Amino acid sequence: MEEKIICWWSGGVTSAVACKLAIDLYGKDKCRVIMIDTKNEHDDTYRFKNDCEKWYESPIETIT
User: Fold this and answer.
1) Which of 34, 38, 39 is nearest to 16 (CA)?
2) Does this model's pTM top 0.85?
3) Residues whose CB falls within 8 Å of the CB of residue 60, separated by 6 or more in sequence, listed in order
4) How far is Cα 63 from Cα 61, in angstroms, rounded to an integer?
5) What is the largest distance, in Å, between two alpha-carbon atoms of the chain?
6) pLDDT in tens, 45-59
């Protein structure tokens, strides 16, 4: 089984850029970008998540 790099996407610009750098460095097939959804997020967090998925050309997994 191929090991994956876990990239934590928290909804802020810092984690968004860190995830993008990891994707660019290791490749999107080797990275799992994951958001932990507290179900108490601001609506704009979900808009930003959609923007980042387009930027990464890859989905952000959501766990709760």
Assistant:
1) 34
2) yes
3) 9, 33, 34, 35, 49, 52, 53
4) 7
5) 37
6) 999 999 999 999 999
Q: What is the pLDDT of residues 17-41, one digit of tens each?
A: 999 999 999 999 999 999 999 999 9
Other CB atoms within 10 Å distance of the CB of residue 8: 12
Would you call 12 helix, strand, or coil by DSSP?
Answer: coil
Q: What is the pLDDT of residue 62?
A: 97
The residue type at 58? S
| CA dihedral over 42, 31, 56, 17, signed as positive or negative | positive
Q: Which of 13, 28, 18, 20 is nearest to 58 (CA)?
A: 28
